[in-house]
Write a structure and sequence with these properties.
The complex is a heterodimer of chains A (about 260) and B (about 350).
Chain A: H1 8-31, H2 37-42, H3 44-77, H4 83-91, H5 98-109, H6 116-123, H7 131-156, H8 160-167, H9 172-183, H10 185-200, H11 204-209, H12 220-230, H13 232-258
Chain B: E1 2-11, E2 14-23, E3 27-31, H1 38-46, E4 53-58, E5 61-65, E6 70-71, E7 79-82, H2 94-104, H3 109-122, H4 138-150, E8 156-160, H5 168-184, E9 188-193, H6 196-202, E10 205-210, E11 213-218, H7 220-225, H8 230-236, E12 239-246, E13 249-251, E14 257-259, E15 265-272, E16 278-280, E17 290-302, E18 305-312, E19 316-320, H9 322-328, E20 335-340, E21 345-349
Parallel strand pairs in B: 3-9, 3-10, 7-8, 8-9
Antiparallel strand pairs in B: 1-2, 1-4, 4-5, 5-6, 10-11, 12-13, 12-15, 13-14, 15-21, 16-20, 17-18, 17-20, 18-19
Helix pairs in contact in B: 2-3, 2-4, 3-4
Chain lengths: ~260, ~350
């Protein structure tokens, strides 16, 4: 096949566009104080933030799977009035500014919130500014990615496999666990990875709803932001770690989900 | 004991209204053109499409009855299905595919694997037990699908175009195997197909449907000898005319009267084999009483013979040898005379 000639204007604009992405990454790599890398990474505050980030993001992903897969199934399979509205509401956090999401969470689950006030008075349970609050904020922002990915998987699968399973005597739960879930495994995996990556990078909703307490609610992105004020070079190293994780996610998804082009 | 189905339902443009019985020991083929409703009827019997009126009973037990609202879900119907493209589970091994129905019906894993292994043995695929379905050829997949459907020991086996996904070279062999497996299965058997050869080879009785309705049923020999619709006549490759019999003659609706030995009275079908139709450049002299002019609208080579489609007062297809075609100098659009003997016209009640 003949290679297509690139019009000069397109080439220049595309090059500028690419540079806009590459230069900041390059800056991060070039300016990072590699000599202090080990010290910055093993500092107790860093390790604490990293641990909290992993626990919170993995918890969000687990909750996302437990609640998001049934939601995706309902959206894909059940026709009910208001379905589109409900779908729009559950995917709204994808486009909502995370800070707004944090405020909304406060108004619902804060100590004076709609549900929060009742939780506080009836059970003495406080959610905001706790590690549970971090998980809630991350789930709120990240779960929609899992929902839409899994719903797309459910919609595109060949449902006749489920019919074949039923003719073989499989009840609904067996059909779901032994046929449906395995067949949508690629979507499930991609959705979970996207959800986890989004949760790991969450900043706005977390700092609004859960605050920034080291060891309790201070995740990696929060730590990076804080270090920028006090110890810039350490914040560069942490940024680089987050960058590498994101890159890893992207490469994994490219193979498992987007297909190698 | 048997299957009794009376199925009425509407699905898109298809309005299905069919009564179908399958008796003990019988292999029934459901034959019809694409879109006739064959697969929909099969799906209704399996409980995958709801019926809007009628009933489905298996051995006297109600599976579905629109009048009373009774409905036994697919998974409790004891109906095995071989789907058109087999629908083997791509994520399971061949053995696990065959064991699926046994596991679903409560067999322990080891027991299910053992029985599935026996079934694979029976269809000659034990060496592929651990393979994934996409590693198999079309014919092998068909055998796995059959083993999977039979393993849970269903009362009724439904096969939807079991050979359609195969290429021509393997079809004959797989058909022979399938016939053998169908013969050794003790339950009721229904094969859906659009291929008359397949239907005749596999089944004891054909049920022909068109546009959602039954048009004819009988043994393969009865159906091919006495087609009762244009579709069946085309499948068998004979000319089918309808008309009113009047002692030795059949009057066609458009006017012409055909001499036919054996015609008595009433509405009848008249069948003329294309080979019994003779062609002439000039109006022939002599014995045949059935002589008609016409115009050639199509010439096609079929095997060693040439089929010539003729429009006219009596529209027919004639079959001649290529040599005869050259001798007569026939070509599309040309005028021609056709003749056939009164003894070559088969007449039976409509």
């Amino acid at each position: 096949m003949r290679r297509e000639r690139v019009p000069i204007v397109v080439a220049v604009l595309a090059a500028i566009g690419a540079a806009f992405f590459i230069l900041p990454l390059l800056g991060l790599i070039v300016r990072s104080p590699w000599g202090d890398a080990v010290k910055s990474l093993t500092a107790p505050e860093t390790l604490e933030a990293l641990k909290l980030s992993l626990i919170a993001s993995l918890s969000s992903t687990a909750i996302g799977l437990i609640l998001g897969v049934p939601l995706a199934w309902v959206f894909a399979r059940v026709d009910f009035p208001g379905r589109n509205l409900l779908r729009a509401l559950t995917t709204l956090p994808m486009v909502l500014p995370p800070v707004v999401g944090g405020i909304a969470l406060l108004l619902a689950f804060g100590r004076r919130g709609l549900v929060g006030a009742w939780l506080d008075s009836a059970f003495g349970v406080t959610l905001p500014f706790t590690t549970v609050g971090v998980v809630m904020a991350e789930t709120f922002v990240a779960m929609p990615f899992l929902i839409i990915t899994v719903e797309a998987g459910l919609r595109s699968m060949d449902r006749r496999f489920e019919e074949a399973a039923r003719t073989l005597g499989a009840k609904r739960w067996t059909v779901f666990t032994r046929v449906t879930l395995p067949l949508i495994a690629p979507s499930l995996f991609a959705g979970a990875v996207l959800c986890w990556a989004r949760a790991l990078g969450e900043f706005g909703a977390t700092i609004t709803f859960a605050g920034n307490f080291p060891g309790v609610t201070q995740t990696m992105p929060l730590a990076v932001y804080l270090l920028l004020e006090t110890n810039q070079e350490a914040s560069y190293i942490l940024s680089l770690v987050l960058l590498l994780i994101s890159l890893l996610v992207l490469i994994t998804l490219r193979h498992r989900w987007l297909g190698s082009a | 004991m048997s299957l009794e189905a009376s199925v009425q339902l509407t699905l898109g443009a298809l309005a299905l209204d069919i009564g179908l019985n399958i008796e003990e020991g019988e292999v029934v083929a459901l034959l019809g053109p694409n879109g006739a409703g064959k697969t929909t009827l099969l799906r209704a019997i399996a409980g995958l499409v709801p019926i809007s009126s009628g009933h489905i009973r298996l051995d006297g037990r109600v599976l579905e009855d629109a009048a009373t609202g009774e409905y036994v879900p697919t998974e409790r119907r004891s109906v095995g299905v071989v789907f058109q493209d087999y629908l083997l589970f791509p994520h399971l091994s061949v053995l696990d595919n065959v064991a699926f129905g046994l596991r679903s019906r409560g067999a322990r894993p080891q027991e299910a694997a053992h029985k599935a292994g026996e079934w694979l043995d029976r269809v000659g695929l034990s060496s592929y037990a651990k393979a994934k379905p996409d590693a198999l050829s079309g014919g092998q997949r068909q055998r796995v699908a059959l083993a999977r459907a039979l393993a849970p020991d269903p009362r009724l086996l439904l096969l939807d175009e079991p050979l359609a996904a195969l290429d021509v070279t393997t079809r004959a062999e797989v058909r022979r195997d399938l016939k053998h497996h169908l013969a050794s299965f003790p339950g009721l058997r229904l094969v859906v197909t659009h291929d008359p050869l397949e239907a005749a080879a596999l089944a004891d009785r054909l049920v022909v449907i068109e546009n959602g309705r039954l048009v004819q049923t009988g043994s393969p020999a009865e159906v091919t000898e006495h087609p009762r619709s244009q579709y069946v006549a085309d499948l068998v490759g004979v000319n089918l005319l309808t008309g009113q019999a009047d002692h030795g003659a059949v009057r066609l609706p458009s006017g012409p009267v055909i001499a036919a030995v054996g015609a008595e009275s009433g509405a009848v079908f008249a069948v003329i084999h294309p080979r019994a139709v003779a062609l002439h450049r000039q109006r022939p002299e002599g014995s045949p009483r059935n002589v008609w002019p016409g115009r050639i609208t199509g010439i096609e080579l079929m095997g060693g013979r040439v089929r010539i489609r003729i429009e006219g007062e009596v529209p027919v297809v004639a079959e001649v040898t290529p040599a005869a075609l050259r001798e007569l100098g026939l070509e599309e659009g040309g005028e021609v005379w056709l003749s056939f003997k009164a003894t070559e016209v088969g007449v039976y009640q409509a």
